[in-house]
Amino acid sequence: MIHQPTPRRTSLTSVALLEDLAASQTSARPFERVEDWLESTYPVDREESRSDSFLQVYLEPIDPRTTQSAPPEMPPNMPPPSSYGGKKGYAATPVTSSRSSQAGPVDSPARASSVSRSGSLVENPLYRETNLAENNIYLRSSRHELPREISNLLVSVQKERGSPVPCPTTINKNYDLYAMEEEASEAQVEAFVRDHVVPSSSREDTIQRSDRIAMIKSTVPSTHPKHRLSTPVPDMLYGYNRSTGFTREQRTQISTSRNKLVANNEGLLCPFFALEFKGDGPSSNGSATCINIAEQLGKELQQCKRQEVSRLDNESFSIAMNGTEARLFVSWREDRLIHMQKVNSFILQRPEEFLEFRKWVRNIIDWGRDDRLRKIQSALDALIEEGRMAASKSRPPPAGPGPSDAVKRQRSN
């Protein structure tokens, strides 16, 4: 028989035991205990928001080898792109986009090809030496003597104007002009030129101006597929209005030529004058494209053997300027090469030079409105007449009297 021992009673009751335990511990407020827990979990010396710890596990880098869809890792220390370098007016390092920044290591061929595809072509430091040269476009030194035809053209566009011009005192009081000497954005330079340099434009004028409109890609004279030319977007581009500059028959002739004379989506025809307000170099692409468009009409004219048609001008002008300086360039085709040369430069804050600059700009526009437009119209008329002659030769001769007609006449007699 098993004997069950009687339990011993404790000297303290349950209530007394709990009171004794509570008295032996230091009292702490509930919010102090929460602070202790937060301090142990999120130390003060850890500089991050409390929500970061919950996201940290999802922000840990994932090994690209674990998935095929993961993009390549970015270079750890990518150098910032420099603004300018090498030759004046051309960027030394292409500006990388988000797409090109994920193309692999800095020196890898994959990344280099990605930058060349996504970045701007003109930001390439070798753009002039490779892209322009491979497409037969050259910037000549201003020391070189100009061809006779170009020299004669410059004489005509620098003649004195018959219209009134501002006096030097008025130029000195132009606040906007001298404000550009301290600081001027591209938009401010453009607004000043529109208000104080170029003549006001009208839809009824034979001259049409396009502002910041890209030229049609097919008009760019790219001859080397590996080193292509960028599509020019001049800040201002002067050409002709289809509706007011040409007759109905001439407009029809332009359309039958597959609109090769159209420069942009605004329908501007046969451009001859491009202006850039960045001031970081000549608009080589814009001038070369103007020449290429004019030569499309010249190629058709070569098939027309008419002595009354004079030589068609394919020269073009361009200006590169900023808030203090303007440089004037002329471009022309000689054999297979397109040459571009600076012919004058102007300090805008010198009243005499500013007035000279204004005169050149307006004379170039007048040259395009008068002499150049007349030659283009004459060329179109020659092509129209040549088309009529070709159509008349292709018509079959009228049918002569047949045997049945002779028999009918004999019976009637």
From TrEMBL:
Region Disordered, annotated ranges: 59-121, 387-413
Biased composition (Pro residues): 72-82
InterPro entries: DUF7924
Pfam families: DUF7924 (PF25545)
Compositional bias of kind Polar residues: 94-103, 111-121
Domain DUF7924: 182-380
Name the UniProt record assigns to this protein: DUF7924 domain-containing protein
Species whose genome carries this gene: Fusarium piperis
